[in-house]
Amino acid sequence: MTLMQLKNVSVIFEDREGILRKKKFYALKDISLNINEDDLITVIGESGAGKTTLGRIIVGLQKPTKGNVIYKGYDIWKEKRKIYSTYRREVQLIPQDPYSTLPFNKTVEEILSAPILRWEKLSKNELKERMIRLLQLVKLVPPEEFLTKYPHQLSGGQKQRLNIARSLAVNPKLVVADEPVTMVDASLRIGILNTLAEIKNKLGLSMVFITHDIPIARYFYHLINRGNTIVMFAGRIVEEGDLEEILSEPLHPYTKDLIKITPSIDNLHREEEVKINYSRVEKGCPYRLRCPFAMPICSQNEPSLEQYTHKVACYLYGKKQ
């Protein structure tokens, strides 16, 4: 069953050029995506690809310039009265940065209890039991010892586990994990990914897993062993399909380049995001200035996402549009 749909979603921002001139560009362009119950959507792309903007659209932190965000059959921006409170509770975000997203002056107990009490009326015993279960779920044990701690008393990995627990506090249906291990020490990443996969499988959550790191994406995908993958560039989906099929038979030139610059598909300890330097183009394929296969048609019209062995937006495959 479809939980959320994005229909032709675009987000347009403005860049200031000089004192007076402003130039518009697409942070997202014509994004259409279905998220089903108990689904895994993996989003791969380098810096500037639009991954975080997509995540913000899904959790309602960014309003689309164009298009529709549909949750359980309702447009979250046009039919707020009917769905917005349910949507705000059931769609949650695991942020990238575990250091700046937790209030320094509140204990773990206060951090976890705040979202719960916003939506539910529980007795003190029921509330404590809920928080203990959450801490056990994210492997912060013994939970009683963590409840009275402040964020500065936790390691980076423990902070991120607390962020995960906080996102689960209100029993969400869909969780967006935005680069959830990027700012965590490399030695702790596998453990957090394992915990995240266990939680997804145990609770039957739908999850959007955002990463710039192909080895991380591949490792997490195999923990779940199902789902759909999209590759993003310049705010567009350029390739979509099964992750292993995309990695073994990449179609889009950008995906091929992305795989080439990955140090090792089996390396989970990549420290920094490799940034592909690209120029924004106003017409045609956004990757054409870097593409070794660029044709005249690429500078005239932007290719749409079409089915080949899997979906790809490239004139090398299928009809010339």
TrEMBL record:
Claim: Protein biosynthesis is one of the keywords in the record? no
ABC transporter domain mapped to chain residues: 4-259
- What's an example GO BP annotation here? peptide transport
Any one Gene Ontology MF annotation carried by this entry is:
ATP binding
Entry-linked InterPro entries: AAA+_ATPase, ABC_transporter-like_ATP-bd, ABC_transporter-like_CS, Oligopep_ABC_C, P-loop_NTPase
Show the SUPFAM superfamilies listed in the entry. P-loop containing nucleoside triphosphate hydrolases (SSF52540)
UniProt keyword terms in alphabetical order: ATP-binding, Nucleotide-binding, Transport
Which PROSITE patterns does the entry mention?
Answer: ABC_TRANSPORTER_1, ABC_TRANSPORTER_2
Tell me which domain of life the UniProt entry assigns to the organism this sequence originates from.
Answer: Archaea
Its protein name is Peptide transporter ATP-binding protein
Which species is this UniProt entry from?
Saccharolobus caldissimus
Taxonomic path: Archaea, Thermoproteota, Thermoprotei, Sulfolobales, Sulfolobaceae
